[in-house]
Design a protein that fits this description.
This protein has 246 residues and is mostly helical. It is 65% helix and 3% strand.
């Protein structure tokens, strides 16, 4: 019982650290309210900054892709107990976030700058809405499960895990990957867009386009025809880009 309680505490710390890192990335991209924003720091030569920054985003994405694969999880849970597998993944994500922010090279050359206070406020509102949408998307399949708390709590209570099912409701009735869509669009929702934002957004876009294929292969392996039918009726990223939606 003590070990199971420690697992819950371990997962709880992971949950709050994950929320903190998410809030930091929001501030980082907005260049507001954090010790180091996307345009802060000493500028390096352009070619080096682009290579370093793109590499950091790709490494951040590869961590998500590799550790999320079913084959990796089968191996990983022979080392890490299954109830804290997700929480451990989140600790690794926090470490990757720290590395991305710490080593990020600013490229502050402006693409656009919105001067109007009203227009800037509208852009910021869009930015906050995108992040709100991304967080809301986690509740579709279990917010606390997504952040690793449910697994540790079920282990403590000795409750069997719930079976995975396929439902296409709310945001997931519009697009299959609302969280990925948020990551691709959030960097552009800024009153002061820089080359650094473009590098972040471009690297994120390339990674997501590559990784989504493997993610969906895992989902087909887990859910079978239910996910195949879902793919046919709901677009990946652009709402209403197909005629028939569930």
């Amino acid at each position: 019982m003590i070990l199971k309680s420690l697992m819950v505490a371990y997962a709880g710390v992971a949950y709050f650290l994950s929320l903190a890192s998410l809030l930091y990335i929001m501030g980082f991209l907005a260049n507001f309210g954090v010790p180091k924003g996307i345009s802060d720091g000493e500028a390096a030569p352009l070619w080096r900054a682009v290579l370093v920054d793109a590499g950091l985003v790709v490494l951040f994405g590869l961590h998500h892709s590799i550790t999320a694969r079913a084959s990796f999880k089968r191996w990983w849970t022979t080392i890490i107990p299954a109830p804290i597998e997700r929480a451990t993944y989140l600790y690794m994500t926090v470490i990757m976030t720290v590395a991305l922010v710490y080593f990020w090279q600013p490229i502050p050359f402006a693409i656009w700058r919105v001067e109007s206070a009203l227009a800037s406020g509208l852009v910021v509102a869009v930015y906050v809405s995108i992040w709100t949408m991304m967080v809301a998307a986690t509740f579709h399949f279990g917010h606390f499960s997504f952040f690793g708390l449910t697994q540790a709590w079920q282990n403590l209570r000795q409750s069997p895990p719930k079976s995975t099912s396929m439902t296409a409701r709310y945001l997931y009735a519009l697009v299959r990957h609302p969280i990925s869509l948020g990551w691709m669009t959030a960097p552009f929702a800024t009153p002061h867009l820089t080359v650094g934002h473009i590098v972040f957004a471009t690297s994120t876009f390339v990674y997501i386009m590559f990784a989504t294929r493997f993610e969906e292969e895992d989902l087909i392996g887990e859910l079978g025809d239910a996910y195949r039918d879902y793919r046919k009726s709901v677009p990946a990223f652009v709402p209403y880009s197909r005629r028939h939606l569930q």
